[in-house]
Amino acid sequence: MRRRGLTLVEMIVALTIFGIVSAALFMVFRGHLSLSGPLQARADMIHDARASFDILSRELRHCSSIQSGQADSILFLARISGVSQTYKYALHGRSLRREAGGSGMQEVTERAVDLGFTYLNLEGNVVSPPITIANDQLVKRILVTVSVMLPDESDTFTVSGAVAPRNI
Fold first, then answer.
1. pTM of the predicted structure, to 2 decimals
2. Proportion of the chain in helix, strand, coil states, percent, rounded to 5
């Protein structure tokens, strides 16, 4: 006589194996989730630094005069899309802020810990701040540094590069 189906012992063994495999998969999935939070925070930090640097360098490239250039802030006039207006970048606490055309300071990123400007002449020598309209024609390149920090303050990411103002 042939029997169809499974015995009780076979069912228990199958359920036990299924439970062990399910528990192992759950542990792997949970481990992945615990890693994705810090990785996402790091990706956000890198994105904030790069986006801040890109905005600043794009506007600075159109600079026609530096009204006030310090080591940690800059106020300049730029003509973008046919409109001339002043731009100001400075740190306020842990916030990189930007003012365009007197519209008030707006936050570019809230995780900034450092903003730096180094002004270079044609020969690549440093032009010491303060930079003003009286000596801005000496500046041919500006080294810009933006550093941001993870929310838990465990790591920093820095973006830096040279910007050559086209209209000075």
1. 0.78
2. 35, 40, 30
